[in-house]
Every structure is written in structure tokens, then in C-alpha cells.
Amino acid sequence: MAISFINFALGATNSTTSFSITIPATQANDILILEFTHRGTGNGTIGGTSGLTWTLKHSQLYASSTFSGKTYWARATGNHSGQTVTGSGLINSCAAILTVYRGAVTSGDPLADATIVGEQNASADETQAQITTATNGAWPILVVVNSPDLAIATQACTSPGTLTERAERLSTGGTDTSIAHASAEKTTAGGTGSFTWTQSDAASGSWEVAIVPQGATTYPQSFSETWSRSEALTTKATHKLSLSETWQASESISTKLVKTLSFAETWVASETLATKTVFINIIQETWQAAEVFTAQFIAGGGELLAAGIGLVRRVFTKQS
Length: 320
Prior knowledge:
Blueprint: E1 4-10, E2 19-22, E3 31-38, E4 45-48, E5 55-62, E6 67-75, E7 84-88, E8 94-102, E9 117-121, E10 127-128, E11 132-133, E12 139-146, E13 153-156, E14 164-171, E15 177-183, E16 190-191, E17 195-198, E18 204-211, E19 224-226, E20 237-240, E21 243-246, E22 257-260, E23 263-266, E24 277-279, E25 284-286, E26 296-299, E27 302-305
Parallel strand pairs: 23-25
Antiparallel strand pairs: 1-8, 2-7, 3-6, 3-8, 4-7, 5-6, 9-18, 10-17, 11-16, 12-15, 12-18, 13-17, 14-15, 19-24, 20-21, 22-23, 26-27
């Protein structure tokens, strides 16, 4: 199922230290993205009547680290039309928006298809470094925040190109703030190229996330995974941060590189898949064909072997 943009809702035009947004119609598993900025650095207190669990995805400082913008997300449990999401405990002025997307993964982090990139931008700097998406059909999102309140236009990048502005709020409350959210489908995974936009010159903040489409799988940043003899090489996935990678039938074990966080492992063609265990975050190692893999466990750079298993000494080095 491809991702689609469904709807948006806005906070008030004169919000100061709090906001309230009325949620539009939703379906179960829709992704609600709440974004706001204020003239402070705290994350605020998120509440409302929806009963949803809101997860902070990103906090971006700007204006010499004096102000900040936030991205929170929640997964709908049904139709939340008419319910509210609120924010409080903010400083001076705030601007808030809500967007709804459908077709994202139905479990795990839906905003994990790329490593987030955020920047504090000096006046007249209306560019933002690229992100790299992991999945075909992911949706990059560009968020730009300002104080005072400034309109944002012509958001774009190299791929997918022009971004459609989905929501924008300029708030005249307090000393004024503003926030804009633009997105588009990226049909092919990879680098987006730099993001650009237009606005009146002022210090701003910007960041990018990417929505993971259904059919992809997201994984936590720390995990272990055991290969079983019955698993097919064509469906086995390896993982790097939020990256999901599918093995292709034409790939040989001898050339496939497994990458997870700071771990890389090269498979040798004569190895078997039975009880092969992949561990992450501590080592880089090359497995030799003569080694026995059954019931091996690696922890903290050391190795414990079950009784009766042949030992070929392993050297582990932590990547910087």
C-alpha cells in the first residue's frame, strides 16, 4: 500500500505558551504527525482528549540555540475526528500543525526510513543537507521553523523534486513564530539531494524525516537475529539503523555485506546458514570457512563457545 497524504489541522493564529489542535477524521494505523515551534528549548507537555501516545521524534534548535522546533508522532487506533491534541509549558509564542498520512508501516517507528538531518540556518541560508531514504516509496518531509512568523514557499530537492506544502501556521502570539511542513513521495530509495525553500531572510531551523511505507520493516537500533536453515536467502533482511535491506536471489553469500550500526560482516561462500547468529554494535569481523558457527554467542567484544565446538580464534575491533 502506497503512502498518501490525508489531511491536516492547525493550531490558533495567536498561540503563546500553549496550543490546541482538533484532529480530523482518521482510520486505524494512520500516522499523525504533530509539529510545533516556540521561543524556548523545552519539549512541552503533550496532552488532549485523543488518548493517543505521542512520541518525540526530533527536537531542532535554531536562532543560536535559543528557540526550538519539534516533531512528535502517534498511530491512530480508529477515527479520532473531533478529539484534540494539546501542547503546554511553552515559551512566549508557539505555532503548531498536525498532518495525517496513510499507508505507513503499522508497527514500529513510521518516521525511520532515513537518518534525520537538522540544521540551524543563518539569515539568507535557505538550504538543508540531504537525507538518504532506505525504501522505495518512502516520503521525505521537510519542516522549516522561524521566529518571527515568516511564510515558506517553493520547497524542493533533487529527488523527488518539488515538495507539496501540506500545512503551515504563522502565529502572531507573543513575539511571533511560524512552522511549515512539505512532503512528496520518493519512488526510488537513495539520496534526496539538498533541500531548498524561499522565505524572507532570517535565522531559521529545518529538519527532514522520511515516512516508511507498508511492506518495509523497521528495527530498533540494538538487536540480535538468528538465521535458520529453512529461511530463504531471497527474503532474509539485514538492518542498519532504520535501513531495511532485502537479499536478492542473484547475490552470492561470498559478496554480501551485512551492515548494522558499527558492525560489518562478510560471508564466505562455503559457509552454511544453519544457526548463524548476527550481532551488532560491537564488532567488525570476517568469518572464515573453517569455523564452526553453532551456538556461538558474542558479547562486549568477547566470545563464549558451547561445549564441544571447535574454536578458531576471533579478533574483534570496534569501528569508530
